[in-house]
Design the sequence.
């Protein structure tokens, strides 16, 4: 392995296809690497952009020798050898069985938290999302394989895991569902916190909600993407719920876990969005009491529709002008900050457990609490290990005390 492209025999560019900007950067990077090509050197594109374009990339970019999608990495040695011999090749076949179970994930040593993939692909067809076209059909890892990986992480000192899937709460390995997964991971010795992202509102079964409430290590936080508060816009997005169904899901979660923190994703300026649609989104943020909304305001390309005609093009008609999208962007945040302030008031004086994180913020050190919240804690004594659970009482918590704000814990 070398950091200098001029010394490399194989140049691989790992890619994303979720946003057009990422693809444009890849095209620029390929142009830079082209000058390092010499006889016998292989220049390849791997990942989701490679999956999306396939052999089209070979036709449009003569300097590219190799195009491999996410399910083709196991064959890279043979494919690289073929490309080195002058045979340009593309492998973008979906392999429903491929989870790379025998390929250990490369993680930085000494970290207290880790991401664990439990699901690949997606069966939904949201008109703004390209994942089904680049990652294939939804398939879940075997529960015991996930547990074995988490046990290994715990042996390495990891105390917090985040379970990853495109619609993670639809997890099912043929025998076990998401509730089983939470209960199995939640009792792994050494694991203190279990998180997951991103769930789909329709896929929260009663069993899953019960597991969230009953398993002590499952954090009191759900990142629950809504995308819009307008039922008509949700329909055009291809989402499988309307406004009332989303709110009903939130009510079920709050009934089971009263102190749960709700965060969400919101698309601002989706093609065809009206001021009334946007007002519906603002009112939903108020109604839910969202802690931290993640906003996307952009000039839209409807990736899924463009790739496969999903939605017949109707989901991505002419959009709101980009200027109006940018103006709308900040508006959902003030009520969210207000809800943070109310939560901060409830937090003050409450006992809290926190784990020091391996980075500093402001004058204190950053800590991860049991919900969505990050806490700022005073510097600990010598030997105060990152990831170790410590307990204190919140003595001050102000507006924005969550992920983007501060609170002070007295140890």
Sequence:
């Amino acid at each position: 392995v070398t950091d200098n492209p001029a010394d490399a025999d194989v140049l691989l560019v790992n890619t994303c296809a979720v946003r057009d900007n990422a693809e444009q950067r890849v095209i620029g990077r390929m142009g830079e690497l082209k000058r390092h090509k010499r006889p016998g050197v292989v220049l390849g594109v791997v990942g989701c952009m490679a999956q999306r374009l396939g052999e089209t990339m070979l036709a449009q970019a003569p300097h590219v020798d190799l195009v491999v999608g996410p399910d083709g990495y196991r064959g890279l040695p043979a494919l690289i050898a073929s490309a080195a011999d002058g045979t340009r090749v593309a492998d973008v076949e979906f392999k429903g069985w491929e989870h790379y179970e025998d390929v250990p994930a490369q993680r930085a040593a000494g970290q207290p938290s880790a991401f664990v993939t439990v699901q690949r692909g997606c069966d939904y067809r949201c008109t703004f999302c390209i994942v089904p076209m680049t990652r294939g059909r939804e398939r879940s890892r075997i529960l015991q394989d996930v547990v074995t990986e988490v046990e290994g992480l715990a042996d390495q000192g990891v105390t917090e895991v985040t379970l990853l899937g495109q619609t993670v709460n639809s997890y099912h390995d043929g025998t076990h569902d998401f509730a089983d997964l939470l209960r199995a991971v939640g009792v792994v010795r050494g694991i203190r916190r279990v998180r997951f992202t991103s769930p789909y509102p329709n896929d929260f079964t009663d069993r899953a909600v019960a597991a969230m409430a009953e398993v002590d290590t499952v954090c009191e936080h759900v990142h629950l993407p809504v995308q819009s508060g307008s039922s008509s816009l949700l329909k055009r997005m291809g989402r499988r719920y309307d406004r009332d169904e989303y709110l009903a899901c939130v009510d079920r979660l709050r009934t089971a876990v009263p102190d749960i923190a709700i965060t969400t994703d919101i698309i601002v300026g989706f093609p065809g969005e009206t001021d009334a649609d946007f007002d519906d989104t603002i009112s939903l943020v108020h109604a839910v009491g969202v802690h931290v909304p993640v906003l996307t305001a952009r000039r839209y390309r409807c990736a899924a529709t463009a790739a496969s005609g999903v939605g017949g093009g109707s989901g991505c008609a002419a959009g709101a002008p980009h200027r109006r999208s940018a103006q709308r962007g900040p508006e959902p945040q003030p009520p969210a900050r207000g809800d943070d302030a109310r939560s901060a008031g409830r937090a003050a004086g409450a006992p809290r457990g926190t784990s020091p994180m391996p980075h500093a913020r402001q004058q204190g050190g950053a800590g991860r609490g049991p919900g969505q919240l990050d806490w700022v804690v005073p510097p600990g004594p010598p030997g105060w290990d990152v990831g170790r659970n410590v307990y204190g009482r919140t003595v001050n918590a102000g507006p924005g005390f969550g992920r983007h704000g501060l609170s002070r814990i007295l140890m």
Remarks:
- The first strand starts at residue 10 and ends at 15.
